Amino acid sequence: MRRSLPGSPMREAHWRRRLLLRASAVLHLLALAAVLIQAALWPWALAGVLLNHLLIAAVGLWPRSQWLGPNWTRLPAAAAARHEIALTIDDGPDPVVTPLVLDLLERYAVRATFFVIGEKALRYPALCRDIVRRGHAVENHSQQHRHYFSLLGPRAMARDLQAAQDTLISITGQRPLFFRAPAGLRNPFLDPVLTRLGLRLASWSARGFDTRVKDAARVQGQLINDLQAGAILLLHDGHAARTKRGTPVLLEVLPAVLTRAAGAGLRFVTLRQALSP
Question: Is the confidence at residue 238, as pLDDT, over 80?
């Protein structure tokens, strides 16, 4: 069970979620009552309900939102006070890119969190085991990485996340503690599913859109702008864009980012290491 202290971000996020969903339920009841009392009001009632659903959809399309439940957009205050920072790498493992990333991280003595797709993990289990062997963390990025993940109902979401949990536990021997939604998109069904599975939702504080942007300097600039204690950086080893020379963007970006962080006195940790009080 996830616990939070009074005034903590997790408690605030739960309060926001309850407020939004309870307000939505009240609006639906009021709309129904209005139509039952005076049928001519149905266009207004329908408009109110539709606007409410658009609002909830918009919140789900905002990856860093706290309104649908707790969401790590930065590391906890205790981790930030220790000058910790997190590097997260999504959509792998990739048989070409991931080994190069691991070698680079080893040269800089940096620990990262890899959000892994279950189906890819099944194709490249040795890579997942190597990630853990080198001191990094493997976390849940769904089993299939469906682009329509945020449209799934609670049962389909639960099946997908549980399948990824089972896959990654069987391969690495470690239970993932965090989940990142595909593209960061979600709906109100996700938080109860995460609670049942004992997972925390994690997004990011800075990303460089390195699956689309081929200019390493642009990607690097986006990340360095938020290079401070408590930041959660997002890059991709899977679906990585290539520079004009054919190099995966993150491989050109990482050395500068890691060097700048070290110069600022920041220490990279995995998300699970940041849980330490």
Answer: yes
